[in-house]
Specification:
By secondary structure, this protein is an alpha+beta fold. Helix content is 31%, strand content 18%. Helix 9 crosses helix 10.
């Protein structure tokens, strides 16, 4: 079950200058300009829903918070209206229809925005770059919420494009939720793009691997070491730990993993010295077309969760208790994050996403950075926030940039583990 299409590194993306949308003409014009952008990329939303979404996301950027009170105060000053009016407008946007006031109440489904949201990201993606890395993971908020999210990972950050919020204490399988999220995203990426879907070993399941393949994307799932594999064309079963038995070793090839729940796939194994244990990755890509180091991109979704919480929008301070309302608020968080990261990408030199210069798995080249090539000191998220606020203060209007993904990481060559009658592939790092 291997892909025959190579997934080779793409050339460096060109530097793109910031793109002002409209000259500054006071706060109302700023709001109108951003509302027009939101409506252009989410055209299925009604005018009232899109307008309040624009207020939510713009208010979050200026307040550096997704808290209702902070955003309402910001919006009230922008529009010169009463704070209570702004607060009620923002609050009811998160409500279900039956809980809203007035005779013209509207119901809207946040899941209808997932596909358009991903297409919005691709619209601002660097021309000629047809690779995309997604990560899926779960994050909790105390004993209230568990959020299952699929995000576009980008330069040490992450943009949520599909999510569901459930009560943290709710019993039940997550499989239906994940399948629904992928269903809403299916068809949002052109078929000639290569899409990698990374997940940690706690989420691995055979059904998940097959479901991602069905969508037309490439699973890149980490698995536990406690299992067996059999090299394609051989009869002997081996321990997964034998594929990378010690630091400095690795292996890749076509295999059948697991005896009880068998999976025909490519196994990528590597153990780098700084790590306490090896990475074991299963994918449908051919061994010569994949690098286990790409799995390091998955960690960026955790950085995205940090930006959503204490490092950015401070969602951990929310007073919400209804999962459905939290799902709607996450749409405003996603739109604001998308905008901020695009603005942060407008700089000429973003630097590497790595903050670990001695770790080849988080370096784009595998080389130890010099003083000139040191990892960036300011995240794209933080840089984007500062860029937007300063642009508004200077009267430059709304500023956007174009997403410029950095080259995917490459690992240093490792010693390939030798198996008798090995007909498999080559070590990914040496490919």
């Amino acid at each position: 079950m291997q892909s025959t299409t190579p997934l080779s590194p793409s050339p460096a993306c060109p530097v793109v200058a910031p793109m002002p949308v409209a000259p500054f003409a006071g706060p109302p014009a700023c709001v109108a300009a951003w509302t027009a952008v939101v409506r252009a990329h989410l055209p299925h939303l009604s005018t009232p829903v899109a307008s309040v979404l624009a207020l939510w996301s713009l208010g979050m950027v200026l307040a550096h918070s997704c808290g209702l009170t902070s955003v309402a105060c910001t919006v009230a000053h922008l529009l010169d209206i009463k704070e209570g009016t702004a607060r009620q407008r923002l609050r009811e946007w998160c409500y279900a229809k039956e809980h809203k006031r007035g005779a013209h109440r509207q119901e809207w489904d946040v899941t209808t925005c997932f596909g358009p949201l991903l297409r919005w990201v691709l619209t601002w993606w660097a021309p000629g770059e047809h690779r995309l890395a997604l990560a899926m993971d779960a994050t909790t908020l105390g004993q209230r919420f568990t959020v299952l999210a699929i995000s576009v990972v980008y330069r040490g950050c992450a943009i949520p494009v599909a999510w569901t919020v459930v009560a943290a204490t709710e019993k039940g399988a997550w499989r239906p939720h994940w399948e629904d999220l992928f269903r809403h995203l299916r068809g949002s990426v052109p078929p000639d793009w290569d899409v990698l879907v990374c997940a940690d070993r706690g989420l691995y399941a055979r059904w998940l691997y097959r479901h991602i393949v069905t969508v037309g994307w490439h699973p890149f799932l980490r698995i536990n070491q406690g299992g067996l594999f059999r090299i394609r064309g051989q009869a002997r079963w081996r321990s997964l730990t034998s594929a990378a038995p010690q630091p400095g070793h690795g292996w890749s090839g076509g295999v059948r993993c697991f005896k009880t729940q068998p999976l025909d796939c490519t196994l990528l194994a590597r153990w780098d010295a700084p790590h306490e244990e090896p990475w074991l990755i299963v994918t449908d890509l051919a061994p010569v077309s994949a690098d286990a180091c790409w799995y390091s991109l998955r960690a960026w979704i955790e950085c995205g969760f940090k930006d959503t919480k204490r490092g950015g929008w401070h969602w951990e301070q929310t007073k919400m208790t209804d999962p459905a309302r939290a799902e709607r608020l996450w749409l405003a968080i996603a739109v604001a994050t998308l905008w901020v990261l695009s603005a942060g990408s407008a700089q000429t030199d973003l630097g590497s996403a790595s903050s670990l210069p001695d770790d080849p798995l988080t370096s784009a080249t595998g080389a130890t950075p010099t003083r000139r090539s040191r990892p960036r000191l300011l995240s794209v998220f933080r840089r984007g926030l500062l860029t937007l606020v300063v642009a508004l203060l200077k009267g430059d209007g709304l500023v956007f940039g174009q997403f410029r993904p950095e080259p995917w990481p490459r690992g240093t060559p490792l010693q390939r583990v030798s198996f008798p009658e090995d007909q498999g592939g080559s070590l990914a790092a040496a490919a």
